[in-house]
Amino acid sequence: MSMAETPNPATTSFPAPTISLPLGMEILRTYSGALICLEIVFGGLVWILVASTNVSVPLLQGWVMFVSVTMFVCSSLYLSLFLLGLADKINTDLNFMDMFYHFIALLFYFGAFLLEATVSSAGTYANNTCIRRPRGNIITFLDYREYSINVAAAIFSFIVTLCYGCSMFMGFRRWRK
What we know:
Layout: H1 9-12, H2 31-51, H3 58-83, H4 94-121, E1 123-125, E2 129-132, E3 140-143, H5 144-176
Antiparallel strand pairs: 1-2, 2-3
Helix pairs in contact: 2-3, 2-5, 3-4, 4-5
């Protein structure tokens, strides 16, 4: 065997991308496209609600804000990849990537939901004031509006978690076919 021989094209070519979701506006007619739209809408609501409150526990609500902003941007980019028809230009198994992306987003949002629910449920009421009693000597006060916003953010975080879970399950089914 000499060095001048041409390499086997099968060893140097990449497989065609594997995708079973439609491209363009047809993606919006599928369950996956509808769930991605719901993820964007409810993720944006979580982002707005957390941003509109006084941050009573910065570390916990900072993670919720990071997850909601990051997943909002990533889901928007992911949907635009299909809407613009660019998904078929990527040489990878997009069915697996869809499942993997939604699994990671599910883990992030489930953690954000738990943290936001913890922030919301940690207080007790005294004269329409939510009194937070963390360890240490610091007591922060939340009024009823702030408490309600935190509860709504926790509920929307849970809805987004369910959307990501359903999307992951559907991505798993497409990947296994």
